[in-house]
Amino acid sequence: MLLEVAGLSVRYGAVRALRKVSISIAAGAVTTVIGANGAGKSTLLNAIAGLVPVGDGQILLEGRDIARLPAEERVGLGITLSPEGRRLFPDMTVHENLLVGAYGRTGGRRGQIQRDLDRIYALFGGLARRRGSLGRMLSGGEQQMCAIGRALMAEPTILLLDEPTLGLAPVVVKELARAIREIHADGTTVVLVEQNSRLALSLADTGYVLESGRVALSGTARALLDDPSVQAAYLGG
Asked: What pLDDT is attached to residue 86?
């Protein structure tokens, strides 16, 4: 396994957001985490990214425990997060926001950075036309594309996507699903947290269901799609 979370617990004061959560992320796979609001999905991604302190447990990247490393070191190890809410710099252009993602990349690689920019503009054609627009002037879908592109500019081995389709129109959701498939096809391991459970499971190889901070179910995405309890609780059937 490329990444393993083992017995992870996270608290916000007296609130236990994660309770002994264990998941495994295979290299080159798409793994999804689904569940109701407040189940701990975003907390799990933020813990992997180093944005919230963990209590008990381990986060093992190729066998190395990184649970106490700062977030910037995890980016250097290949873990990047496209956060819920996009969180662009509103008074920076699309192009500038994307370049922020490459901030930690060391010198002498200007040509490679330009190639990665070109790749993102090809992946999200609408961004190429808006590259000079400020972040606050973009639509919700364009902001989400820019946020994912910014995360890709850090050259991730593991891309964490937190609610990428939240609040977006169906046509934009379809475009983002296509982009996630292309990112995966290029060899990037993807961990997807998504309220649209049917979409998430259709994109994923394996999945986990979180309930009240615990893993309630896990298995292949196909098995979870066919599970009657998952259908009743998350798929509307």
From this structure: 85
Domain span including residue 220:
30-52+70-234
At residue 110, the pLDDT reads: 67
**pLDDT at position 107, please?**
54
CATH number at residue 96: 3.40.50.300
Q: What is the 3-state secondary structure (H, E, C) of the chain?
A: CCEEEEEEEEEECCEEEEEEEEEEECCCCEEEEEECCCCCHHHHHHHHHCCCCCCCCEEEECCEECCCCCHHHHHHCCEEEECCCCCCCCCCEHHHHHHHHCCCCCCCCHHHHHHHHHHHHHHCHHHHHCCCCEHHHCCHHHHHHHHHHHHHCCCCCEEEEECCCCCCCHHHHHHHHHHHHHHHHCCCEEEEECCCHHHHHHHCCEEEEEECCEEEEEEEHHHHHHCHHHHHHHCCC
Number of domains in the chain: 1
Give pLDDT, residue 109: 66
pTM higher than the cut 0.90 = yes
18 within domain boundaries: no
